[in-house]
Amino acid sequence: MGSGCSTPARLAALMLTVLLAACAAGKSYVAADDAPPYARAGYLDARLALTRIIGAPLAPIVRNLRAPHGRLHGRAGLERFLRDALRPLDIVVIRSRPAATRLLIPGHFTHATVWLGTPAEMKALGVWSLSAVRPHRERLRAGRPVIEAARDAVQLSPMREITDVDEIVILRPRPGGRDWARAKYAGLFAAIGRPFDYNFDWTDKARLTCAELVAGVFPEFELPVRYTQGRFAIVPDDIVRAATIPGSRLRVVRYVAPADGNGFSASGGEAVLKLLSRPRDDAT
């Protein structure tokens, strides 16, 4: 006990080690129908039971175990490129900077956000006056054009949340008209404040992960439910995959990755296809 670490700190470190080791060993996933019979019958997996106990207390520790910046951080011209390329209600899926949290997400891409656009664009769509939007106007004016389920809750975030990362995919929904847009904005803003689901458990309807936020507001994407690490979940790779399917209501606009020097490359859907994970055929 001479190291200076308290017993609670030692216990937290031990639990964190066990949790991350278990997650690192089980990042693959299967279709929900291929989950073990006990899971499909509603019985709780021991891995999910563990994260329900220690997930929230350990979340602040896990969040801090990350690289200072993503590989795209500070790339010349990146922010201007994105502002020109993005349109309101684009889905921005990213591979986050190297971090312990990447061990919790199966697949290549690890986070999903929605680009809200500028106040002027929101006014043009007729959504600036929505009752769900009005309380958040000041933050939108102050430069928080991203909505995401992250850290502790669904929230509005600055642009750096989608630029200080390793890779970016811009996905664009098929336009549905002003009424469609109003319904999407109303759904997104109604979710602000909903607690983040540290357990990544699709069956927990009181809390949301980033991918669950997208799946709930955009049911037309028909995102599949997977079984991974002892729980049912929505996988970010599947959001990107949906945009590569012919006839989908979502398409790939740009895939952005670091390039030599201080630059970046922007390509299309073919580059993304090579990165996407695939479900296993069984739940062993």
UniProtKB/TrEMBL annotation:
Q: Residues of the signal sequence? A: 1-24
Q: Does the keyword Signal apply?
A: yes
A Pfam match is Peptidase_C92
Does the keyword Signal feature in the UniProt annotation?
yes
What superkingdom heads the lineage? Bacteria
- SUPFAM superfamilies the record matches: Cysteine proteinases
**InterPro entries reported for this sequence:** Papain-like_cys_pep_sf, Peptidase_C92
Keyword annotations for this protein, in alphabetical order, are: Signal
> Could you tell me what this protein is called?
Lipoprotein
Tell me what organism the protein belongs to.
Nitratireductor arenosus
